[in-house]
Automatic annotation (TrEMBL), chain A:
<keyword id="KW-0143">Chaperone</keyword>
<comment type="similarity">
    <text>Belongs to the UreF family.</text>
</comment>
<comment type="function">
    <text>Required for maturation of urease via the functional incorporation of the urease nickel metallocenter.</text>
</comment>
<dbReference type="GO" id="GO:0005737">
    <property type="term" value="C:cytoplasm"/>
</dbReference>
<comment type="subunit">
    <text>UreD, UreF and UreG form a complex that acts as a GTP-hydrolysis-dependent molecular chaperone, activating the urease apoprotein by helping to assemble the nickel containing metallocenter of UreC. The UreE protein probably delivers the nickel.</text>
</comment>
<keyword id="KW-0963">Cytoplasm</keyword>
<dbReference type="Pfam" id="PF01730">
    <property type="entry name" value="UreF"/>
</dbReference>
<dbReference type="InterPro" id="IPR038277">
    <property type="entry name" value="UreF_sf"/>
</dbReference>
<dbReference type="GO" id="GO:0016151">
    <property type="term" value="F:nickel cation binding"/>
</dbReference>
From TrEMBL, chain B:
<keyword id="KW-0963">Cytoplasm</keyword>
<keyword id="KW-0996">Nickel insertion</keyword>
<comment type="similarity">
    <text>Belongs to the UreD family.</text>
</comment>
<protein>
    <recommendedName>
        <fullName>Urease accessory protein UreD</fullName>
    </recommendedName>
</protein>
<dbReference type="GO" id="GO:0016151">
    <property type="term" value="F:nickel cation binding"/>
</dbReference>
<dbReference type="InterPro" id="IPR002669">
    <property type="entry name" value="UreD"/>
</dbReference>
<keyword id="KW-0143">Chaperone</keyword>
<comment type="function">
    <text>Required for maturation of urease via the functional incorporation of the urease nickel metallocenter.</text>
</comment>
<dbReference type="GO" id="GO:0005737">
    <property type="term" value="C:cytoplasm"/>
</dbReference>
């Protein structure tokens, strides 16, 4: 494995891409009374990993693979359309593009010579996993490492939001993340393998409540998290 | 059991739909029934119990330019276990031409305890085609936990990706019954409406039903979870009627954020 420090920097919640502002649906799930304690948080995170986490990690790894390919612009356009087709909720599409834009802004500042201009110029920004793939390429990470960053942030973002939303014991939440580490690694490995497929065959694991939570959350006038 | 079936519909020069081909074999039999208007209605009649793990079923549907087809089933299909390690598969491949209309409105799929079932739908809608596509999944018969079921829905519109969804339930799908996916709801389903003639509607959500305008064209997905099959159908029928009365009352709250 190369670039271990780069991997840690990109996976760090303090990387300036605004990840801390998002609960990834948890705020709405808490409001609906579906996540109430550590046990239901654990089930929530397992479900997220198997659905949104797998899809995001596969697309990030695929974008990372495309970064060093000759057909890079065409592949990125195709990946963008395929990810749109996997994101039925308009609120989730908006959030993904907003997070992609924030990550891209950080990437351009940190790696000014890296080529990010092949990302499709979609209104609202590139989808977050596509931006992550190219930022990962700039940082020298391989597709499996990029998938690990994506899977890891799927669980850590919601977990730290849970501490604030439910007042859970941070030690207990961290212990939960430690128990989920194996599932996280397995998801990343599966995503990296899936990323070798053509874009239309990438995973599309769906979760009805993720769409419902995202749309409900977007109607709120007052909220703690942006998603 | 292996079975294939094929339905090909064409519009004649008067705009009436005729079946150019309609063939199937047990347990995948197709029956045309009388329909009002110029379209045709075809029922898929299960010729045996199942699908049972090990079954390989394939249905091809081709709706030619201007043709109008409605496909239904007479009863819910119940995915059941078969020999150990075997998987039942149902592949539906569909093409809907320009100015053609397909209403795909089968009864529910019930994932029984111990089943291992994969349902694949690959749908190509040409620009100007209309599609109503309903999918309903019941997780287990009354009071039982389901086996593994995976519903894959791949829809292209005008050659571009419109919808890719893969829903997995059962012991092989981590967190499927948890608060991120179904939160214990035994019934879930969706209705996809691709209709170039329908004005766009904003996203909306009410309870556990969401109306989701898709990115890839004039199409909306209604997605829902429900405590039972009947309630789920009520939710999706409500979606369908709001689709029919274009520009009518907004079903749920309008997004403000």
């Amino acid at each position: 494995m190369t670039a271990p420090t780069m991997l840690l920097l990109l996976a760090d919640g303090r990387f300036p891409a605004g990840a801390h502002a998002h609960s990834a649906g948890l705020e709405a799930a808490v409001a609906a009374g579906r996540v109430t304690d550590l046990a239901t948080l654990g089930e929530y995170l397992r479900g997220r990993l198997a659905t949104a986490g797998l899809v995001a990690a596969a697309f990030a790894a695929a974008a990372r693979r495309a970064a060093w390919s000759a057909r890079r612009p065409a592949t990125l356009v195709r990946l963008d359309a395929e990810l749109d087709a996997r994101t039925a909720s308009p609120a989730q599409r908006t959030v993904s593009r907003r997070q992609g834009r924030a990550l891209l802004r950080a990437g351009r500042e940190i790696w000014p010579t890296a080529a990010f201009d092949d990302l499709p110029a979609t209104p609202g920004g590139p989808h977050q996993p596509l931006a992550l793939g190219l930022v990962g390429a700039a940082a020298g990470l391989d597709p499996a490492q990029v998938a690990t960053v994506a899977a890891h942030s799927t669980v850590t973002g919601s977990a730290s939001a849970a501490v604030r939303l439910l007042g859970l014991d941070p030690y207990q939440v961290q212990a939960l993340l430690v128990r989920l580490a194996g599932a996280c690694d397995a998801t990343a490995a599966r995503a990296a393998r899936a990323a070798e497929q053509p874009p239309q065959r990438l995973p599309a694991a769906a979760a009805p409540l993720a769409d419902i939570h995202a749309e409900a959350h977007a109607t709120w006038e007052v909220r703690l998290f942006a998603s | 059991m292996r079975a294939t079936a094929r339905l090909v519909a064409r519009a004649d020069r008067h705009g009436r739909t005729a079946l150019a081909e309609l063939r199937g074999e047990s347990p995948l039999l197709l029956r045309q029934v009388a329909a009002t208007g110029g379209g045709v209605t075809v029922y898929v009649v299960g010729g045996a119990a199942g699908p049972l793990a090990g079954d390989e079923l394939r249905l091809d549907v081709e709706v030619g330019p201007g043709a109008v087809v409605r496909v239904q089933t007479v009863a819910a299909s119940i995915a059941l276990p078969g020999r150990p390690g075997a998987v039942s598969r149902m592949l539906v491949r569909v093409s809907v031409a320009a100015d053609a209309v397909l209403h795909w409105l089968p009864e529910q799929l019930v994932a029984a305890a111990g089943c291992a079932h994969v349902a694949d739908a690959q749908v190509d809608v040409a620009e100007g085609g209309t599609l109503h596509w309903r999918d309903e999944l019941i997780c287990g018969r009354h009071g039982e936990q389901p086996g593994h079921a995976e519903i894959n829905t791949w829809v292209d519109l005008a050659g571009r990706p419109l919808l890719r969804q893969s829903l997995s339930v059962g012991p092989d799908a981590p967190g499927w019954a948890g608060p991120a996916v179904l939160s214990g709801a035994p019934a879930t389903g969706s209705l996809l409406v691709v209709d170039p003639a329908r004005p766009a509607e904003p996203p909306a959500v009410r309870g556990t039903v969401a109306r989701l305008p898709l990115a890839g064209g004039p199409a909306t997905l209604w997605t829902a979870t429900a405590p039972d099959a009947h309630t789920l159908r009520t939710y999706l029928d409500g979606a369908n009627s709001s689709a029919a009365s274009a520009g009518g009352e907004v079903n749920g709250r309008v997004r403000v954020g």
